[in-house]
Amino acid sequence: MSKGALALLISGGTENWAPLRWRVRFLRVCPGRPVALIPVDAVDAASVRYAAVWKPKPGALSDFPNLEVIFNLGAGVDAVISDLTLPPVPLVRVAVGDLTGRMTEYVVMHVLMHHRRQGYYAESQRAKVWAPKLQWAASDLRVGIMGLGVLGRDCAEVLARIGFDVAGWSGTWKSIPGIKCFAGEGQLGDFLARTDVLVCLLPLTAQTRGILSRRTFAKLARDGKLGGPVIINAGRGGLQVEDDILSALDDGTLLAATLDVFATEPLPPDSPFWSHPRVTLSPHNAADTDPDAISLYVAEQIARHERGEPLQNVVDRAAGY
Ligand code: NDP
Ligand code: OXD
Q: What is the torsion angle, in degrees rounded to the nearest 10, for the CA atoms of residue 92, residue 295, residue 283 and residue 10?
């Protein structure tokens, strides 16, 4: 019996993420299985059992009557789940060590840049000024991580190992050695009140959209070593109210912001974020995952499914992540 086909529906993407490269990769890790890059390759729609997608066009998956599993080629599923015509089959997201490790690198790097005042030292170097400032210990800085899922938990643990005073906030309460855990709306205020550096690793859902707002910033600790609260958002742009970030930076409610994600991507050339002196930004590549690791993960999930084992990292459609 021939193996069910894998359809690839991949929007955009350059270099490593170019759609044609994904086809080569999947042909390599799924030997003997027909792989069709849609809409380039012709495929019998009825033979398609699996789809691997990145920002597919709404409705595009309805063409396959025998679809069994949809694999999102990233960790965040907001772009897929917003399609109300999405077939009601399991939706699997990416959770692989390669992605997690890269996100942790990004978060640790930016927490350390703020903690060790790298902006000040870079400026001093440009001005040829030798002026060391008093440096406090990592344990004096309170880092708060919104989202204690696959990514948030790893960041929390590594930051705690470095010595930071780390807390985390999630929907359901967690018990993580060395991390002060908070959960739900009821504990959000207490979590924010003890946070100097707020790291956001939440998924974008109806509940979390716009959570990085002035209302949230106003509740952050104002008695920390940095002289004001700092935010780091590597979740999704829709989590942040961008005008609120700008006005909070301008009136001192926030000291600085590190942003990897934006409401509109690519960030338009006229965005004030580009040149804001207290914004550090990156082009949504906090966890620029190795596509080989992702394609291998999808192939393993298909093999599990065909052996009758449960799929891993299946999205809860009702919760939206
Ligand atoms: P997970 O699903 O593993 O974790 C999500 C966490 O958020 C969970 O702890 C969950 O709580 C918590 N959460 C969700 N909704 C709420 C809420 N309303 N209130 C409080 N907590 C909530 O996701 P990952 O850690 O794998 O990824 C997180 C996000 O990171 C992705 O959705 C994606 O948007 C983003 N991302 C960004 C990348 C980049 O390069 N910038 C790369 C990869 C991911 P609970 O544990 O109770 O369920
Ligand atoms: C993801 C991302 O969700 O790259 O994996 O943003």
A: -70
